Amino acid sequence: MSARREAGAVPPWVMPEAISSKGSNENINPNRRQRSSGDNFPPWGETAPRQLPSPQKKEDVQASVTTPRRCNLAAGDDTSLSEQDSKKEYLLISGGQVVNGDHMQTADVLIADGKIESVGVGIRVKKGTPTIDATELMIFPGGVDIATYIENDRFGFDPKTFLNTTKEALLGGTTTIVDTVICPKGHLPLNTIREIQSKTKGTKLWCNVVYRVGLLEISETILSQMETLVKQKLVNSFLFFVSGSASPAEQSEALSPVELRKAMEKCHQLGVLAVVRTSSKPSSGEVAVEHSEDQEKAEIKATEEILAIAEMTNCPVIISSPHSLNTVEMAAQGRRQFPPIHAYISCAPSVLLPTPLNGMQKPSKFLDYLTTGGITAVSSDQAGTNPYTGSPRLGAIGQRLVAVWESGVPPGYLDASLFVNLTSANAARYSGLYPSKGRVSPGADADLILWPICSLARVGSGRPTMVLLNGKVMAREGKLADSANELIPPITVNNSPVADTDPNPEGDYLAAEPFPSAVYGLVAATDRMKRRHLPNRDSETFSTPSPNAPKADTNLSIPQAAPAKAESRKSPGSEVSQNTPTARNQSGSDSSHMSVRMVHGHRDLYASGFSLSGAQVDDDKPQRSGIRTSQPPGGASRNPLW
């Protein structure tokens, strides 16, 4: 008996198969070799020497046999020397702290032709491969700005300076922007976006751009063109304006509740996101940070309307750049209810900055919702090509990442992973770009940021050390990388530093895919829930009606009473009347005793139609005070009481 069998590694009842001395079978799959193929397997308990191809030298054979293969900490295998293609352009970033939205780890990143090929520990590459030593640096995915308004004539768009605006974004660490083209009233969205494309034709980009279309009115023609835009993969989100104010200027560009419902139903059908703003002036630098009481009430009213219609249509919605904390709280309550409302919040960096009050800096209350998940993305709100028409109190698109980092990370509101989610990963998920964008993993685009680790606790040091786009070094310390810069970390070849090559604009317009799985996976689950169960609005849970209950209308479509629905929705903290009739009560059936709480598909064996209340079958017979039996049960008895 072998040593392995004596040690208990192999059960005693398992007998090794006899090794056949016949020739190998030619029909056997070489990737899955069978024991009966005639291979000379070693005796039990011994290790066979590695058989290497003949062209390798003796030194290479010895090195490959004796060097152990280290285990990865991330997805992707180590890339061995023989697997590297000499035709590809490689770049190795070694010793960095890879940060994704769900974890952090120390690993190397191997880039090949603008794509991340491998992430792991101890990646071996050929001699002469350019290498960046990322010790004491974190490796972030490139930033994704989910709301900009650059290519719009109403905000002073200049195609000649569009290149500089994208360069500002790149220098600040943003490698992809979602730019909104607002369609004026009386124009068609397809014509508007074609006009913008003709203006920017031939213009180079320093960062990637994804289109979004903003609509100020809804008609059947516009709804039809929305479908055309999505099918041509030009956009996968639409912007709408809703106003709770009575101001004629605000109402002129805001959609009515009926129009908003039609638009969101179309978005749900096409698999795109509805981005809604409560103000039609996204970039005005003159907007005060502290809104008045009337402005806050108007925003709350508009938010109630948005959430009510989102609940009717089950359409995912992003409420962009709110100024009231009540808006954030109402959206969070909508996500927590059952069934949930798929509403998300994207804020501007200006609301994260401290507010001056009586000569002192008052911390922003919005930072609390960054930690708890009430706010899921941060956008720059850059409008036009003027760098000073961004969000209030924060000038340009290039300051977004620095503002979020300095506001949230050193004070302890955020860690590095939450920072990645707010500035890159969630925006990529909502835009259908994840995991190509917003993640450092094999197969993703090599849009990366190198960030100093010391800035986790040191205020004022958080800034991009290096920015890569498509695997090429584009920026260092807030400036374009060129051969004259001698900044660290340098690119080394065989441990010798080499000068940076002068970068060229590498950005492009990206296709927008509908039905982003991170959003519409939850929407599809809610649709299945509503189709399978009939909601009982009198209770907190879904219930299955009793077999004896009259059949109710299972059509979940709500009549065109969107304004009434919005008015019936109460703000947080308000009391809701318990006597409000529900849909079932209006249909004539009382759902309070007709429904039975049980697992769907099971029968309630204790359910019965018998009831002691109401009319009975013996009501016509006279009632007697009592009946005395002549004999007790079981036979005669001598008990005198009988």
Structure write-up:
Pfam families: Amidohydro_1. The protein has a domain at 140-208 and 274-287 and 316-324 and 343-498: Alpha-Beta Barrel (TIM Barrel), CATH 3.20.20.140. It has helices spanning 3-7, 58-66, 162-171, 189-199, 220-231, 248-252, 257-270, 293-313, 325-336, 366-372, 400-408, 416-430, 517-532, 562-568, 583-586, 591-594, and strands at 90-99, 104-112, 115-120, 131-133, 137-141, 143-148, 174-183, 208-215, 235-241, 273-277, 317-320, 343-347, 355-357, 360-362, 377-378, 448-452, 466-469, 472-476, 479-480, 491-493, 496-498, 544-545, 595-596. The chain has 16 helices and 23 strands. Mean pLDDT is 75; it is low at 18-80, 283-290 and 537-598. Helices cover 25% and strands 17% of the residues. It has 642 residues and is an alpha/beta fold.
SSE order and pairing:
Blueprint: H1 3-7, H2 58-66, E1 90-99, E2 104-112, E3 115-120, E4 131-133, E5 137-141, E6 143-148, H3 162-171, E7 174-183, H4 189-199, E8 208-215, H5 220-231, E9 235-241, H6 248-252, H7 257-270, E10 273-277, H8 293-313, E11 317-320, H9 325-336, E12 343-347, E13 355-357, E14 360-362, H10 366-372, E15 377-378, H11 400-408, H12 416-430, E16 448-452, E17 466-469, E18 472-476, E19 479-480, E20 491-493, E21 496-498, H13 517-532, E22 544-545, H14 562-568, H15 583-586, H16 591-594, E23 595-596
Parallel strand pairs: 1-4, 1-5, 6-7, 7-8, 8-9, 9-10, 10-11, 11-12, 12-15
Antiparallel strand pairs: 1-2, 2-3, 4-20, 5-16, 13-14, 16-17, 17-18, 18-19, 20-21, 22-23
Helix pairs in contact: 5-7, 7-8, 8-9, 8-14
